[in-house]
Amino acid sequence: MSKQNFQTKLIELETIPQDLVKAPTQPVDVTTQEAENLFIWVQEDKKVLISIGLDWDKYVEDLPIRTGACRYAQAIWNKERYSQEEAAKAWKEESPKAYAFRNDLLADMRFAFRKRPGLLARVRTIAGGDGNADMIQDLMDISVLGKANATEFEATNYDMARFDLAEQKSDCLAELLAKANGATWDNSKAKDIRDRAFTHLKEAMDEIKDTGKYAFRKDPERYKGYISHYRRR
């Protein structure tokens, strides 16, 4: 049902103005449970709340749909976030090895091309940059240059498969770095939609709670159903 609620709400969520979108101010699972409790609590007060202006259809009848959409959006973002965190961890483990491999290949080339000034100049160009993206590109450039000059490596019985491995590593590391950066930037589409779903749910909850707290400000037994027990802690 949560998935169906999410699909029902997706277009509406995407049209929320960016300046109104807010990240959760409390755990999403707490908020969705509070929304479910509120939906049950409010039923007894329908006539009173409608009489002082609460749009029942817009906020109360729609509340379970907003709740399901938010719960599903959170699940999607959790999956994306953990994937990114795993990628960041893998990058931290693999990147030092990749740098070392790149440096070994450059040393191999300097030796193989030691009598070829033109090729040595190209090696210097490859080695000239810095940073993760540059290292990934270096591996690809090394692969291409090495394969194009295979005869220079014949005298040392060099393992040319290392250049194939450099190409493979370049492709894999580029994808891994992109995923790892997603965890650092924290700006994925999944997070944006989760924030929108939370904003949409909170809009309804706030409207219902504000109306209920006003209506039952002198009735503690009914008033207590319109406050957040999480925030009171």
How does this model look, in words?
The chain is mostly helical and 233 residues long. 76% of the residues lie in helices and 0% in strands. The protein contains 11 helices and no strands. The chain has helices at residues 2-14, 28-42, 46-51, 56-61, 63-112, 117-127, 132-148, 161-185, 189-215, 220-223, 229-232. Helix 5 (63-112) crosses helix 7 and helix 5 (63-112) packs antiparallel against helix 9 (189-215). The longest helix has 50 residues, at 63-112. The mean pLDDT is 92.
Can you give the helix content as a percent range? over 70%
Q: What Rg is obtained from the alpha carbons, in whole angstroms?
A: 29 Å
Largest sheet: none
Order of helices and strands: HHHHHHHHHHH
Return residue spans where pLDDT drops below 50 for at least 5 consecutive residues: none
How many β-strands, per DSSP? 0
State the separation between the terminal residues, measured CA to CA: 31 Å
What share of residues are in beta strands? under 5%
State the shape.
Answer: rod-shaped
| Overall mean confidence score, pLDDT | 92
Overall structural class, as computed from helix and strand content, comes to mainly alpha
Query: How many helices does DSSP assign?
Result: 11
Defining traits:
single chain, 233 residues, mainly alpha, 11 helices, 76% helix, rod-shaped
List the helices and strands and how they pair.
Blueprint: H1 2-14, H2 28-42, H3 46-51, H4 56-61, H5 63-112, H6 117-127, H7 132-148, H8 161-185, H9 189-215, H10 220-223, H11 229-232
